Amino acid sequence: MISVNDFKTGLTIEVDNGIWQVMEFQHVKPGKGAAFVRSKLRNLRNGAVQEKTFRAGEKVAKAHIENRKMQYLYASGDSHVFMDNESYEQIELPEANIEYELKYLTENMEVHVMTFGTETLGVELPKNVTLEVTETEPGIKGDTSSGGTKSATLETGITVQVPFFINQGDKLIINTSEGSYVSRA
C-alpha cells in the first residue's frame, strides 16, 4: 500500500479494479476543510484518462508493473509481434492496444513491454525516436531555422511540423510524448 501523499508522476496504482498510471497530481490544502490530492490518471488497460480526488493520507495499492526489453519485429494482420531480447520468446499484441505507439514504431526498434502478472498491458516507447522523412516540400534557399514550419510525413505515416530546411530523406529525432520535431539526427 502507498499513501496518496507519496504520488509521483509515472507511479502505477490499483484503484477501482483498474491499473492506473499517475500522469499529474496536485496537493491541495484549502483554508477550510481537509487537505486532498487531485490527480490525473491513465488506465493502462484501455488508455482512458480520468481525474480523481483522494483524501490526504488515503492508502492505495501499488501495482507492480514489469518492463521487459523487447524488439518490435513485424505486423501480422491486426496483431504486432515483439520478441524478448534474452529468451527470444515472441508475443503478439493486438493493434487496438498499441494504436498510439504504432505511430513511432519501426521494425527492429527496442521498446519496453509492460506486463502485470501474466497480462500484457502495452508498450512504453523511448523518449525520442529517429524517423526518416518520406515526403515534404523542398526547402527554399534563404529559409532559416528560426523561420516558419512546414508539414513532413515520416516513414511510419505520421505528419509533424518541421523547419523549412528539412528535406525528403533527412533523419529526424521526434519526441514521442508530444509527437514533435526535436532536431536532425
Short synopsis of the structure:
The chain is mostly beta strands and 185 residues long. The chain has strands at residues 2-3, 12-15, 18-28, 36-43, 49-55, 59-62, 66-76, 79-84, 90-94, 110-116, 119-124, 128-136, 149-154, 159-163, 171-175, 180-184. It is 0% helix and 55% strand.
Describe the protein's architecture and organization:
- The chain is mostly beta strands.
- The chain is 0% helix and 55% strand.
- It is built from no helices and 16 strands.
- The chain has strands spanning 2-3, 12-15, 18-28, 36-43, 49-55, 59-62, 66-76, 79-84, 90-94, 110-116, 119-124, 128-136, 149-154, 159-163, 171-175, 180-184.
- It has a six-stranded antiparallel sheet with strand order 1-6-2-3-4-5, with no helix packed on it. A five-stranded antiparallel sheet has the order 9-8-7-10-11, with no helix packed on it. It has a five-stranded antiparallel sheet with strand order 14-13-12-15-16, with no helix packed on it.
- Strand 7 (66-76) and strand 8 (79-84) form a beta hairpin.
- The radius of gyration is 20 Å and the shape is flat.
- The N and C termini lie far apart (43 Å).
